[in-house]
Design goal:
By secondary structure, this protein is α+β, with helices and mostly antiparallel strands. The protein has helices at about 135-165, 170-185, 200, 220-230, 235-250, 260-275, 290-315, 315-335, 355-375, 375-380, and strands spanning about 20, 40-45, 45-50, 55, 55-65, 70-75, 80-90, 95-100, 105-110, 120-125. Helix 8 (about 315-335) runs antiparallel to helix 9 (about 355-375). Residues about 1-35 have low confidence and may be disordered.
Length: about 375
C-alpha cells in the first residue's frame, strides 16, 4: 500500500501531463533555488510558493522543509489526482524536483506529518511546450502499461477465488486465496497513484484511514479472517465491493497517466515504503504474508527498471551496473525465505512473524541499498 490518498473525484481524462525527476533529500545535495527556480517552503501550517505562474517546459522546484515535522510535497491535478510526490522530507532539509510540464492548472501541496490533504497552493503552467522525449521511452511506457494491464487482467480471477470464499463463509479457503489475490496489485504499485482513488479503496490499513473514510478492501477482510476469525454479512458485502473496485482498476489502466519518470520515481518511492513501513510487518499485520508483497513489489520495480534500462545505460552505465547488482542481491535475499528454496517461481514464503528483528533489518538494508541508486534512475533517463 502506498501512502493513503483519498480522492473525492476521479477523472478519466488527463487534463495535462507532468514529468518529475526526483533528486536526493540530503542537505548537501539540494539546490538553494537558482535562477528561475520555484521555491517551495513547507512549514507546519503552510506551503509557500514563490511563483504561481510559470512557463510550461522545464521547471525546477526547490523545496525546503522549515517545519518541525517530516513532510511530503505533492503535485496534483485540479481534481486531486496525484501527478508525483516526494515523501519523508525531514525538518531542515532541502530537496529539488526538476519537472517537465505542459500548460495547465496544478496544485502544489505540503503535507506535514504526511497525512491528510495538507496545505495547498494553486499554480499554473502557461504556454510553452514540453521537451521532446526519446522514442525508446515512449516504448518503455507502452511496455509498462501493457505489463500493468496484464497484471490487472490476471488479478481479477484470483480475487474472485478469494471473494467467492468470503461470500461462501469459508474461512480456510479465503485465507488460502488471500495472498495470491494481491500479487498482481502489488506488482503494479510503482504507478498505483495513477489510478486515482483505487488504492485507498482497496489497500488501506486501519491506521491509514482519513477522517470520515470507510474502511474497505483487502486489509479489512484480512482482519476479519485472521483476527476476528469470522465472516459476517458485512464482510460478504465488502468482498463484492472489492470485486467492483478492482474491475474499475482494470478498466482505468489504459487511461492512466504513466510517464518514464513516474515509473522510475514510483518504483523508488515504493521501495522507500517497503524499507520504512512494510519491513516492520505493518502491511500484513494479521496474515503475516508480507514476504509475498515484498517480492511482488520488487518485481514491479524491476520491470520498470528493465524497460527504462536501454536509455539509462547509455546515459549512466555505472548506475545501471549498480542497479543490476542491487536487484540481484535483493532477489537472492528474498529467496532465503521461500518454503521451497529450489523453486524461485513460487510465492510460498515463510510467515513473516517468524522473521526475527535482525533478519528484518537485513531486509531493510537490502531494500535501502537498492533504493539509493534507484533514486537516480529518473534523472538518467532524461539526460
Amino acid at each position: 500500500m502506498r501512502a493513503v490518498r483519498f480522492s473525492v473525484t476521479t477523472a478519466v481524462a488527463t487534463v495535462a501531463a507532468l514529468t518529475v525527476i526526483t533528486g536526493c533529500t540530503e542537505k548537501s545535495d539540494a539546490k538553494s533555488g537558482g535562477s528561475g527556480a520555484i521555491e517551495v517552503t513547507a512549514t507546519d501550517d503552510g506551503c509557500k510558493v514563490s511563483k504561481t505562474k510559470f512557463p510550461a517546459g522545464h521547471v525546477e522546484l526547490a523545496v525546503e522543509n522549515k517545519g518541525s515535522r517530516v513532510t511530503e510535497v505533492e503535485i496534483l491535478f485540479p481534481d486531486d489526482r496525484i501527478v508525483s510526490e516526494r515523501e519523508n522530507i525531514g525538518p531542515g532539509t532541502k530537496h529539488t524536483l526538476t519537472a517537465e510540464v505542459k500548460s495547465g492548472d496544478y496544485r502544489i501541496a505540503c503535507i506535514p506529518g504526511m497525512k491528510g490533504k495538507g496545505h495547498r497552493q494553486d499554480v499554473q503552467a502557461t504556454g510553452g511546450k514540453a521537451a521532446k522525449r526519446d522514442p525508446r521511452l515512449d516504448k518503455a511506457v507502452a511496455g509498462y502499461r501493457q505489463y500493468v494491464q496484464e497484471q490487472a487482467d490476471a488479478t481479477l480471477p484470483k480475487v474472485k477465488v478469494f471473494t467467492d470464499a468470503v461470500r461462501a463463509g469459508d474461512l480456510d479457503a479465503a485465507k488460502k486465496a488471500y495472498a495470491p489475490s494481491r500479487i498482481g496489485w502489488e506488482r503494479t504499485e510503482p504507478v498505483a497513484e495513477s489510478f486515482g482513488d483505487i488504492d485507498p479503496l482497496t489497500d488501506t490499513r486501519a491506521d491509514g484511514l482519513e477522517e470520515g473514510q470507510k474502511w474497505t478492501g483487502w486489509h479489512r477482510l484480512e482482519k476479519a479472517l485472521w483476527q476476528d476469525k469470522k465472516i459476517g454479512a458485512a464482510e460478504k458485502a465488502l468482498a463484492t465491493q472489492l470485486d467492483k473496485d478492482l474491475t474499475d482498476w482494470q478498466q482505468r489502466v489504459g487511461k492512466a497517466e504513466i510517464t518514464p519518470t513516474s515509473m522510475a520515481n514510483g518504483a523508488k518511492e515504493l521501495l522507500d515504503e517497503v524499507a520504512t513501513g512494510k519491513v516492520t510487518g505493518e502491511e500484513e499485520r494479521y496474515s503475516h504474508t508480507d514476504l509475498v508483497d515484498f517480492k511482488a513489489n520488487v518485481e514491479g520495480a524491476e520491470k520498470a527498471y528493465e524497460l527504462l534500462k536501454p536509455v539509462a545505460s547509455e546515459n549512466d552505465a555505472a548506475l545501471t551496473k549498480d542497479l543490476d547488482k542491487q536487484f540481484a542481491a535483493l532477489d537472492a535475499l528474498l529467496d532465503k525465505y521461500r518454503t521451497d528454496k529450489g523453486d524461485t517461481s513460487s510465492y510460498d514464503f515463510i510467515s513473516y512473524d517468524k522473521v526475527g528483528k535482525a533478519d528484518q533489518k537485513e531486509l531493510s538494508d537490502g531494500v535501502n541499498a537498492l533504493a539509493e541508486p534507484l533514486s537516480k534512475l529518473a534523472a538518467a533517463v532524461v539526460k
